[in-house]
Structure formats: C-alpha cells, structure tokens
Write the structure tokens for this entry.
Amino acid sequence: MLLDTYGRIATDLRVSLTDRCNLRCTYCMPEEGLSWLAKPELLTDDEVVRLVRVAVTRLGVTEVRFTGGEPLLRPGLAGIVERCAALAPRPRLSLTTNGIGLERLAAPLRAAGLDRVNVSLDTVDPETFHRITRRRRHGDVLRGLAAARAAGLTPVKINAVLLPGVNEEEAPELLAWAMAQGYELRFIEQMPLDAQHGWQRERMVTAGDILRSLRTRFTLTPEGESDRGSAPAERWIVDGGPHRVGVIASVTRPFCRACDRTRLTADGQVRSCLFAREESDLREALRGGADDAELAELWRAAMWGKKPGSGLDDPSFVQPQRPMSAIGG
C-alpha cells in the first residue's frame, strides 16, 4: 500500500500525460504560454502504462485519473486508456480536460474503457470565456460536453473557478445551466498554482462567497459528511434534489486529513501532494533498469514522507515552482 506516517492510504492516482495546453487561462499561465517539456523528458506510452500497472497491481491503487496540461493533446491517449482498462484488478478510469477535442474523442475513449470525465468550464458566456482563456473555443467545449454525455462518460462533471471582477457573479447562472443539461457542477477555489505566481489570498473568491451567491437563488442542504469520504468536494443538495453542487475549498477548508491521492507528472516524478515542493524521480529508475518491485518500493518511500497538510492555511506558505499545467490536476 501507499501508506504515509499519518495513516493515510493513497488509492487514487492522478497521471499527467502532458504539460501542454491549447488554452491560456489567466489563472494558470501567461498569454505566450510556457516552455514545454521536451519529448525525451516525457514518459512514453509504454512507461506510463507500466507505472500505472505497478500502482494498480502492487500498490493498491483503484482509481486512475488522466490529467495535463490538456490530456486530449496526447496522441496515444486512447491506447493508454485501453491498456490500463485491461489491468487486473481493473481500476476506475477518468479524465480531466478542458473539453476541446472531446466532441471527436468522447466515443473512442469510452470504447477504450474510460469511465467518465471532468470538464473545466468557468462561464456560460462566450465573451467571458474568451476573456479568461484568451481563446474563442466556448462552442467547442459545449459540444465536447454533449458528446461525453452521449457517449456515456457519466456522470459528466464540470469544474468551475470563479475570479474576482470577471465571473464571480455567475455562480447561480452556471448552476442553473448545469442542472438543465444534466451535468454535475463543482466550484473550485482558485489555488496558488499559476505560472505567474500572481495568486493573492485576499482577492480569492472563497467557498463562503460561492455559497452565499448560490443561496440567492437556490436552497442548499448539506450532504452528510459520512457520504463524502475522501472526496475533495463538499456537496449540497439543490432545492431538495435530485441535483447536487460541490465546492472544493482547498484554501479555506483544507481536506488533507482524508487525502488518498498520489500524483505522477508527465516526466515521471511522484508528488505526494498537489502543493509539494519535493518530487521523487521514477523515470530515472525506470530507464535505468529497475524492476517493478524496485519501482514500487521507491513509490512507497515517496509517499511515506507525505506531510500532514498542504500548508495553504499557513501565512508563510510558499508556492511550488511547478505550475498546475506541469503538475497535473
């Protein structure tokens, strides 16, 4: 098992397949983009599948989520999904994406064995979308969402970040739209993982702000804490049900005590926490001839030293050098 010194067991693996992205969201990276990893630095398809196999068959991982950057930009994505779906025991497989390209890929990914998707969408307004992402691709995302629903990649979840002075008033409108479409909406507090290191705690739209905004239009009833488990989202029943809305309050309401995640970057580094400042290199060991047992032991050692919390609630918190696009969500 991937056990740490605080008794937590990691069973949920987040695998970044690329640091590249076809959007330029203001809260993630500058308009000109970033210096992407060179191809030799990236794990190959075979290496990704091998490390997922080690995690699933030797370390007790039961859920695998593919992330980026934008994972739909990975040419071998469908093949990776198919090979991971063939593992025994079979892990649950999901994908976090911006939705661009999902219209074309939803059905093939479902056929390959993908179970569901999370799609990032911060607004229902095309002009606000352009302001946030610096790209005019709002329609592509909506068509991607519809294709995911039609392909059976359900429940289709939407991740939304609210920004002060940009879309912070849209929470009720986003929720009404998501419910009408049959999507499950989750708001995520803006986190200090932007490449520009421009995040400011005092300017963040908090979970409390989001809930106050939603309650101007909806009645929200908290789900029982026992129903949450290790899920990062606190969920509320909307207007008596059946719809629900979630809020991931990584900054103001940390959920580190129940964390069950381990992360693998696109260049083969294990991260015990999204906000960790240390990494453990599996790529070098893998390419140096380590067998599966050795890789598993290195992974165990990396997770054993996991810190008790992210440190986000500490005023002295220092942002990790890698931005979200290079870490994987």
